[in-house]
Amino acid sequence: LTLVELRMRALAGQILEKPNWWNKVRDGEITDKWRREFVEQDAELVKKFWPELQQERDDDDEDKTWPHKNITEEQLNYIFDWLKWLADQRNTQTGIEMMHIQNVYQSYSLITSELREALLQGASILESIPEAEKDWHPGSNNQVLDLIHPSLHCLRIGKSLVKNTKTGSLYVPTVEEYINAREDLSFLYSPSRWMPHSVSIQHQWLPTDFSVSETGEVKHLSYINNLHPDDHKPLYSTITSILARFVPLWERVLSDVLSRQRPIIELDPYSWYEKGRATPEPELEDWVETPDAAYWEAWDVWCVAHEAWEHRKDPFICEPKPFTPPATENQVNFTLKGRKIQVIVKMANIVLTPEKPEYAGGSWHVEGMDNEKIVATGIYYYDSSNVTESKLSFRTAL
């Protein structure tokens, strides 16, 4: 994705965080105001990230996270036409709406107040244990309290007992036996060659099996790791009910992942430096029309100049085409109904006290490894009070 597209998505995301945005995007006076605000905001960010525009370009361009050219009318038109379409796609009953980030959905009204209260009661019981037994997350300065965490009682490869499904006997599988039993991992791993960093030969989180009926009802089929099924029976029911509300979200995410998605701005990387060059390429004849004695010296000078041009040249980024809804003929409509799904359950609290009134945030991480084969995640923030605004950030490799 280009910085131009990332800017368009970021600005659209600001609208999606506004109350009642799905109605406001149809009000011309409001959208005109937002357009003006975007132009002003963009101009300030261009100045912030590109103060050297009127000077010689520096060598720190790779750290820029905002385009150096101001936003255009074509880009603004696309943003607001896209937002109107997103408003049409919003589910008014569940509040499920597509986000500006690909394959991400959200809802502020998915969970009922009764279900939330039941979860709070269950969490309160998990919190009410002796201080010495509390599981503070490593590296959190005793601020993240893990209530349910799959690492506490995970599979320890080469040490945990496993039931042989054919004989019914218990045994401890070796690393090789574990890998060979996992057809999805065996082609990645070979002890004689190398071990991918994405495969653990030490641990694996254990999921809980849930069945999803043809009508969308969810039932837990096995133990939730680190949650006693008798002592916390009401919480089992609550978590299962919450997962039932998450199923439509996951279906939308997986449908998008399986469908072809086009970027907002489609590029031709083979020619994007050939059109409308903002930085002219040094011409070889400008440097080598010299007597033979000075030829190689001139060649070296040209090479240095060309290398600098390669680093600083600007690609040609075309304008987005007018927004059109995604084509439906290649859209995959994936359903979890009638399937058994595996879910890894976590619950955690961030605890602030007068002695520790601030939380610096967690570290960047990926949920699970190839061992767990996680294809989608869902997060429910069930309680937040007496704190300043918090946020959740995503990033991806490009």
Automatic annotation (TrEMBL):
Pfam families: DUF4246, DUF4246_N. It comes from the Eukaryota. Residues 1-37, 74-396 form the DUF4246 domain. PANTHER family: FE2OG DIOXYGENASE DOMAIN-CONTAINING PROTEIN, IFI3P. This is Uncharacterized protein. It comes from Neolentinus lepideus HHB14362 ss-1. The lineage of its organism: Eukaryota, Fungi, Dikarya, Basidiomycota, Agaricomycotina.
